[in-house]
Specification:
By secondary structure, the chain is of the alpha/beta class. Helices cover about 55% and strands about 20% of the residues. The protein contains 20 helices and 15 strands. The strands form 3 sheets. A 6-stranded antiparallel beta sheet has the order 2-1-4-5-6-7, covered by helices on one side. Helix 9 runs antiparallel to helix 11. The radius of gyration is 44 Å and the shape is elongated. The protein starts with a strand and ends with a helix. About 30% of the residues are buried.
Length: about 550
């Protein structure tokens, strides 16, 4: 619910800080005092259109701050997670607009876009005014009315939409396949040529790396051969100066010493180990030397192989990538060769999904018809209470020729205000005043649903009403306020006397400027305001009548009859 609203430099408002409570919050005041300006300011905080004309004269920007207390597990909580906005006990929305038209929007410390604010604002507050009433004529609003609050319909609709999307996905896939069919033969010919070219090379994984290593060795054949030969000679060539011969002499000398001093035995052990390792190294070098083949024919063969691989690098940067490309070519050839069978399989799947989609659509349509009948009866009852005693109202749900994301049906609201007139589409027969009362009846019936916003705003929906009808409107608004927090701008005393919180808005002069101020009325102040609204004066009779109206309203609210 809306906890508080702070508005600064917005139109006639210099600065206002308001506190709201649960139940019915009434806003009254003379025409032009600024009641609608206050609603516009709240609308700006919810993402409604705002422009520089709303900035107070002589100021550079306006700012609005709305503090909400969102309910647990509400749609608002889900949206906060979706947009990665910090959750807290309070939801604080701040919006500023400057003379350059720049928006600054912050929600719980996070900067957000106007689109994000609109989504969150729509989940927080439901505004009920002339322009908003017209939205009832839109198809998506009608479906929202029928489907909302019914878990079974929601589950079937979600299941339907899942199957419908799968069906449409396969339909698109089939269209894409058939569109590409003419290019398949040409593509297949090219792929087979590429396959043959790569396969003919008989590549092996990492072959290019091994080939480069071998070529590096052959390119330095003379240096390698010289080093290997020199190393072999130094280790052992049967002459006195080679390493193995020298070690043998050292071993012989120390063995003689060991006969006189055993301390050199440890040195002899090191020399024995060294001799073994050096002889193994010598054998490895000799084997390596014997195996060396630095013939020009080998080098030529390796270079030729490298040229083959180089020509294939148009398919990949190295041999492994070329081989991966070959795998993809094989897969695509297989797919094209199996095109007809794939198309047949896709067609069979489409037929299956279409049948299933139609079945779910039929179930969904029947559930909607049942829901529409119940809602239509309840709403018609409220409409008749609101002064249109001969009205006919029902929501029609009929089979549609085309399946859509919404289902396989079409929904519309039908209305007739007078006896003897056939009900027709609401968009064709309703007047502005009638639409306002119809919208109120709908809100009254659907107020307790969990899918609707916690806070509702009724902006001067009482225009042109009076007498008994005004009283019934007041009762309906009060009924809505039991389930939702309601903010209501009104000129009718019958509605104002139902308030849980009564805010009075007036224009005053401050220096050379006109400003709008808001006052929360105490009990005695409410009596005076109700008297002014009911009779236009504050004479004793008017005051007495106002007290009577307030007492009657309190009794009705306590009795829970309304």
């Amino acid at each position: 619910m809306l906890k508080s609203l702070t508005v600064q430099n917005f139109a006639l408002i210099e600065k206002i800080e308001l506190e709201f409570e649960k139940g019915l919050n009434i806003l009254t005041g003379e025409t032009g005092a600024g009641k609608s300006i206050l609603i516009d300011a709240l609308g700006a905080a919810l993402g409604n259109r705002a422009n520089t004309n709303q900035i107070r004269a002589g100021c550079e920007e306006f700012s609005v701050e709305a503090v909400f207390l969102p309910e647990k597990n509400s749609a608002v909580k889900i949206l906060l997670k979706e947009f990665d906005i910090d959750e807290d006990d309070s939801l604080i929305i701040r919006r500023k607009v400057n003379r350059a038209g720049k928006n600054s929007i912050i929600i719980n410390g996070s900067h957000v876009t106007l689109a994000t604010l609109k989504k969150i604002g729509a989940a927080l507050v439901d505004i009920h005014g002339q322009s908003e009433n017209l939205s009832l004529l839109k198809t998506d609003k009608i479906y929202s009315l029928i489907d909302g609050g019914d878990d079974k319909i929601s589950a079937v609709r979600a299941d339907y939409q899942k199957i419908f999307r799968s069906w449409q996905k396969q339909v698109k896939a089939l269209a894409d396949k058939e569109k590409s069919k003419s290019a398949h033969d040409e593509r297949l010919e090219m792929l087979r040529w590429q396959e043959q070219e790569i396969s003919a090379a008989n590549l092996k994984p990492n072959e290019d790396e091994e080939l480069d290593a071998e070529l590096r060795k052959l390119s330095n054949a003379e240096k390698i051969s010289a080093h290997v030969e020199e190393s072999r000679v130094l280790l052992g060539n049967g002459e006195d100066f080679d390493i193995l011969t020298a070690i043998a002499k050292v071993q012989k000398n120390l063995s003689d010493v060991a006969r006189y001093d055993e301390k050199v035995n440890s040195v002899l052990k090191f020399l024995d180990d060294a001799e073994i390792n050096l002889r193994e190294a010598y054998d490895e070098i000799r084997t390596y030397s014997d195996a060396m083949d630095f013939s020009p024919e080998v080098l030529e063969s390796l270079n030729a192989r490298k040229d083959v691989i180089f020509k294939l690098k148009k398919y990949g940067a190295n041999v492994n990538e070329i081989l991966k490309r070959l795998e993809k070519i094989h897969a695509e050839i297989n797919s094209i060769e199996n095109f007809d069978s794939d198309v047949d399989a896709t067609r069979r799947l489409i037929e299956k999904l279409e049948t299933l989609t139609k079945k779910r659509a039929s179930t969904l349509m029947q559930l909607r018809k049942d829901s529409a009948d119940v809602l239509g009866t309840a709403i018609e009852k409220e409409i008749r209470r609101l002064g249109m005693k001969n009205a006919t109202f029902f929501i029609g749900v009929a089979h549609a020729d085309v399946l859509t994301e919404n289902g396989g049906d079409m929904a519309d609201i039908f209305f007739s205000a007078n006896i003897g007139e056939d009900a027709a589409s609401l968009s064709k027969v309703v007047s502005g005043g009638e639409l306002s009362r119809i919208a109120l009846a709908i809100k009254t019936v659907s107020a307790g649903r969990e899918d609707s916003a916690v806070t509702m705003i009724f902006d001067e929906i009482d225009a042109g009403l009076g007498g008994t009808t005004a009283k019934v409107v007041a009762e309906c608004i009060n009924k809505v306020s039991r389930a939702k927090q309601v903010l209501c701008v009104t000129h009718l005393a019958q509605i104002a006397c139902m308030a849980d919180v009564h805010l009075h808005i007036e224009k005053t002069e401050k220096g050379t400027r006109t400003v709008t101020d808001v006052t929360r009325l105490a009990t005695d102040e409410r009596v005076t305001e109700i008297a002014r609204m009911a009779s236009g004066s504050e004479i004793p009779a008017a005051i007495q009548n106002a007290r009577a109206m307030l007492n009657e309203a309190r009794k009705l609210k306590r009795s829970r009859k309304i």
